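Below is a filled-in request sheet from our internal design queue. Each sheet records the structural input a requester submitted and the sequence that came back. We keep these sheets so that new team members can see what a complete request looks like end to end.

REQUESTER: design group, bay 2
PRIORITY: normal
MODE: inverse folding
CHAIN LENGTH: 189
BACKBONE (tokenized):
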């Protein structure tokens, strides 16, 4: 065997030191950095989820604030109370027209204007002619309106006339639906 020259020995030692250096860097520095990156990725993901939840809450709260603002009036401001009733009726008739639902009647329930401390209730009996799908869509639109509206009851009447063969021109799947709706107006203290 040949004897190694000092330059070869230095070169082998240098390569050995570089190898040990790479291994040490990988084991003690690089792996820790990868772990830190994974931990930070998880933190970012959690923070993004919190941000999305906060944005949803913000939208909901601003929607609630708008709803309260649209339905708030002074107890002695009779004009505002009357205009809110007229605005509700306009909203209802416009919605029914847009959905092509036939309005048969709207009647205020006479004993309906009740002051219940912090709010005023105004109830209406509404009779419409539509199918089940449109009735569900109407209730959804009422629920999404800027007014506070409560559906107190609804009754779907049977179509005896259709079963007896009368008046098929208006659609056999349509029914007379009677809704009792109550609008709430919040009163300032």
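RETURNED SEQUENCE:
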């Amino acid at each position: 065997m040949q004897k190694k020259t000092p330059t070869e020995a230095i070169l082998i030692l240098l390569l050995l030191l570089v190898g040990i250096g790479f291994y040490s860097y990988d084991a003690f520095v690089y792996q820790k950095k990868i772990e830190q990156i994974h931990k930070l990725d998880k933190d970012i993901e959690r923070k993004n989820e919190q941000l999305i939840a906060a944005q949803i809450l913000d939208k909901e709260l601003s929607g609630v604030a708008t709803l309260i603002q649209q339905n708030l009036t002074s107890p002695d401001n009779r004009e505002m109370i009357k205009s809110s009733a007229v605005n509700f009726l306009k909203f209802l008739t416009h919605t029914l027209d847009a959905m092509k639902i036939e309005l048969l009647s709207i009647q205020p329930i006479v004993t309906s204007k009740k002051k219940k401390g912090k709010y005023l209730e105004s109830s209406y009996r509404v009779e419409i002619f539509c199918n089940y799908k449109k009735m569900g869509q109407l209730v959804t639109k009422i629920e999404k309106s800027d007014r506070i509206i409560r559906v107190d009851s609804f009754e779907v009447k049977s179509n005896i006339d259709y079963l007896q063969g009368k008046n098929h021109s208006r659609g056999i799947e349509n029914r007379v639906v009677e809704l009792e709706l109550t609008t709430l107006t919040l009163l300032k203290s």
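SHEET NOTES:
- The two ends are 106 Å apart (CA to CA).
- The chain has a mean pLDDT of 81.
FILED BY: M.R.
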